[in-house]
Amino acid sequence: MTPPLTLSPEVADAVAKGRPLVALESTIITHGMPWPQNLETAQKVEATVREAGAVPATIAVLEGRLHVGLDPERLEALAQARDVAKLSRADLAVCLATGGTGATTVAATMIAAHLAGISVFATGGIGGVHKGAETSFDISADLQELAATPVTVVAAGAKAILDLPKTLEVLETLGVPVIAVGQDALPAFWSRSSGLRAPLRMDTAAEIAAAHVMRGTLGLPGGQLVANPIPEADEIPAEDLAPVIAQAQAEADAQGIAAKDVTPFLLQRIFELTDGRSLDANIALVLNNARLASAIAAHIAAPA
Ligand code: PSU
């Protein structure tokens, strides 16, 4: 039996010809950003990947098939859909086997990208260890996926709503390379620096591509987390955000928000509390990540 995988004609052609491809997730569209900025951003990200010479492959589960590459109509329908499932490693097979529809998180998008033969994936920020995890045990399945599936994920670090020191510790335990791009500090999503030193630093797309290929040569499972700082002009200083994040987190705790609902709740509240500033920054950092991911994909497709 083969997986119920549907590659768009453009993606199938690029895979067959060994052209650079960049996988893109859909949870950021359905749960990460409000309408209509979610659709506008998804379209802009695809256009950015194309301008950079790669082929975008937005991934989602539609009526029991894993789509890699969405046509404009499907992308728009997904962006407008309500109550879409948020799929991670645990629920992907159940959704496919029951003919369901759902958006893919970082974890599920990595699985799909790997099945389709795509090595590089751009997103905003990965999930990680939530604040208070010592009692809630809330740790994103994205971390385990980075340890298991050989896809290089370009993000602006882990989201600043998380406990970043604990997230780094878990990634270290899992053997996931965390590579800051062009600086020593780990970026913190909306801000360029988390104040923590990243375990690794690389300055060029070519180096990052070479490290991806080397992991494969060594037979190491798992991918790389490329932590690309948000452009300076778009960042929100960490000290401006800290009280906002604390308020959103306190509201989530008071309302008993748990499991998969935590991240979407926090992102939405921070959007409201910053009068949309957090969304502008989120869009800017995703586009920035799409550009770097395209350059890495080009180097993997045609090594120097
Ligand atoms: N990047 C963003 N916004 C998002 C996400 C990433 O800029 O909403 C999504 C990704 O799909 C990621 C998920 O996998 O947030 C993390 O969810 P959780 O913390 O529940 O694992």
Report on the structure:
- Strands 1, 2, 3, 4, 5, 6, 7, 8, 9, 10 and 11 form an eleven-stranded mixed beta sheet that branches.
- The protein is of the alpha/beta class and 304 residues long.
- The relative contact order is 0.15.
- The mean pLDDT is 97.
- It has 13 helices and eleven strands.
- The chain has helices spanning 9-17, 27-32, 37-51, 72-80, 89-97, 106-116, 133-136, 141-148, 164-173, 205-218, 238-254, 262-273, 277-301; strands spanning 5-7, 21-24, 55-62, 65-68, 85-87, 102-104, 120-122, 152-155, 178-181, 200-202, 224-227.
- The protein has one domain (5-301): Indigoidine synthase fold (3-Layer(aba) Sandwich), CATH 3.40.1790.
- Bound molecules: pseudouridine-5'-monophosphate.
- Pseudouridine-5'-monophosphate (PSU) binds next to helix 2, helix 12 and helix 13.
